[in-house]
Amino acid sequence: MRRQIFILLAVMFLSIPARADNGSLEIFDKLKSLIISVSDSIKPAVVHIEVVKKKRDQRFESMGSGLVVDKAGYILTNEHVVDDHIEITVALESNREYQAEVIGVDKLTDLALIKIEVPEEIELTAAQLGDSDSVQVGEWVIAVGNPYGFDRSVSFGIVSGKGRVLNIPSLTPLINDFIQTDAAIAPGSSGGPLVNLRGEVIGINSRGVGRTQGFTIPINIAIEVKNKILASGKIERGWLGLILQPLNRSFAEYLGDPELEGILIADIEPGSPSEKAGLQPGDVILDFDGEKYEAEKDDDLNSFTLAVSRSEVGEKKDLQIFRDGKEKNLNITVGEKPKVKEEEFEAPFGFTVKEITDNVFRTYLLETKEGVFVSYVEIGGVAAKGHLYEGDTIIEVNRDKVSDFGAFKKLVEKYEDDKFVLFKVIRGKDHRFALMDMSKAQQENVEDDNNDDEIADDEDEDLFEE
Prior knowledge:
Blueprint: H1 2-14, H2 21-24, H3 26-42, E1 46-55, E2 58-70, E3 74-77, H4 79-82, E4 85-91, E5 97-106, E6 111-116, E7 140-145, E8 153-164, E9 178-181, E10 193-196, E11 201-209, E12 213-218, H5 219-232, E13 238-239, E14 242-246, H6 249-254, E15 263-268, H7 273-277, E16 284-288, E17 291-292, H8 302-309, E18 316-323, E19 326-333, E20 335-336, E21 344-347, E22 351-355, H9 358-363, E23 372-377, H10 382-385, E24 393-397, E25 400-401, H11 405-415, E26 420-427, E27 430-437, H12 438-465
Antiparallel strand pairs: 1-2, 1-4, 2-3, 3-6, 4-5, 5-6, 7-8, 7-10, 8-9, 9-12, 10-11, 11-12, 13-20, 14-15, 15-16, 16-17, 16-18, 18-19, 21-22, 22-23, 23-24, 24-25, 24-26, 26-27
């Protein structure tokens, strides 16, 4: 699309009579000046982010972009930019670097709010934020970021679409409402701004797909996430506990009404507001809170998901469904969406566990939500020698029950100095024991220290000989 625009402009330019050069080129000069002006105005608010991350036993560096949204040092970026971070360094346009702390993240929207502390004499430039609801398909936009480490690079394009759904392999499905653009968004650009020609930020860039398609989080969603994080430190979202799928024409005909339009309920989570309201698998949602909803394909489910997530927790809503050939009205109380970002803990026995959230429970087809899930076991470590495996669910430590993630951390602290630590686990359908022999680990540590001393002595001797 961008190429077509420039071809059109070139054709227009070539068709201008030679005698009218000066007057006719004025429009192009004005457009050029406008793009340069907008680029210059937004660049001081764009930062370069470098992150040291740790995944399992590996450390690595990654980079991204961010946008200063408050002169107090608050910066919006993507959650995937700072996920698994050990250290975050932010570089300003002046190339001055500052350490950043994470104030809060929202995995569902791929947003994070971080903060830097700068000296009083340094005045940060905050971006001018726009209104993403007023964005129109076809309008010209500018994306700014640090693709491949090239600081504050500018790309130019148009808004290609709105309300896009981007399916990314993840334990946590995104709340999708992306702005699509053909302005280049490459690795390192994530977290930078998408700006209209008035100099207003209309989105936080998230991902690029291929060479010409970028996806941006609407700035109105980003502002909402930022305000919630600053107000309470968490993101509270509405939740009904429904598993949904589109209602296509074949389903409609099967249900006895070929013209039926709505959303099909495939399953209901136990203990959820939907179960308490009396909803059943096979019901068809027709109306929620006075708004009609329909979905012929997966992308169409997004509008209903967004409406539920933006509902106030504890609020009562009217729900109209289709069941057994008849319409039925129900009343449902919106619940709070369960935690989606699972915590991780690196135990002192050479393994890592995850908190068992609803997503972890369903993804790994676990037998219970109690205990913790073993996500990594170090090769040759104490846990591996004690026959603990990735995929195990730990339900007891030294015969003490592990009710949840917090309980497991307390039990590890209680028993980590014992000679033996016994874990009871669920592996598949079976219960097994895994025994940590800490005496062997301590002996190995002593041997490693001795080896290190011998290596150091050899190096000293070599140095002396030189």
